[in-house]
Amino acid sequence: MPPRSHPTARQTRLGTELRRLREASGLKARDVAAFLNSTSTQMSQMEAGIAGVSAERIRRLAAHYACTDEALIEALAIMAGDRTRGWWDEYRGVLPQVNLDVAEAEHHASFLREIVITHVPGLLQTPDYARAVFRYMRPELPQSELAPRVEHRMRRRAVIEGAAPTPYETIVHEFALRVRVADRHASLTQLQRILDQIEQGHVTVRVIPADQDNFAGADASMMYMGGPLPQLDTVLRDFPTGTMFIDAEAQLKRLRTLLRKVEKASLEPMTSRELIHRMTKEL
To answer: What is the pTM of this model?
Structure first.
């Protein structure tokens, strides 16, 4: 397979897992390259996601690494054999690669858990809300870039809708629900959409009340995406410098703890629904 110029986050993750397996075995890349009748450069490309790898080769490598975790081996083989071209590929060259990576990661997730402090979660946003958020970017986006961003965000909602929605739970701060990113009508429509999603039964929303004591999690926003196995979970976090996919086990453990702490600060789903309903009456 020819080297990829721009591997996706999913392809990079597969390479990372192969590197971890090799390092756990104590083998050097050059030794494995010799075993495969390959080169150290090709090994580096494979472990960076730049070069593709077959399911058959993954099983061969796992045997060479003395890896006995059959569930992990099978999950990696499935990742390697997946040639899915999802709807997000239509935006290649139109939107930044990270937008495509997020949609692909959500598509493959076994569950989604999100914390959002400053905005309504992207998967629950209405077109007007999303448009207002994107318009606030600096420098301002021209219409040719604004329209596909809004459209892409709306199409991402497919993962929590349809015949087989992915289980999705979000914890959102009351502040985010009350801020009018556009006008009163847009805010009311946005709150109603959240209530509609809750009513359908496949979305769970928990609200952190504005008067909650001892909540210091203003920087806790994240999207936790379940993998086919816990060791293949991924966390997506946005920083001023860009978006980061986190998959190191030590970091995942820390972020799972953060999720539990933020959940303790939030209201139960039914109470949260009642609070959002009151907000619509206040508007």
So the answer is: 0.94
- Residue-wise pLDDT for 149-168, tens only, equals 999 999 999 999 988 999 99
Q: How far apart are CA 28 and CA 115, in angstroms?
A: 40
Nearest to 236 by CA among 10, 5, 6, 7: 10
According to DSSP, the β-strands at 168-173 and 112-116 are: parallel
Furthest CA-CA distance within the chain: 69
Write down the residue that tokens 């289980």 correspond to.
167
The model's pLDDT over 224-249, given as tens digits with 9 standing for 90+, comes to: 999 999 999 999 998 878 899 999 99
Mean pLDDT, residues 41-65 taken together: 95
Q: d(Cα 160, Cα 186) in Å, to the nearest integer?
A: 22
Question: How many CB atoms within 10 Å of residue 66?
Answer: 11
Residue 207 in contact with residue 177, Cβ under 8 Å?
yes
What letter does residue 49 receive in the DSSP assignment? T
- The answer to whether 24 and 231 are in contact (CB under 8 A) is no
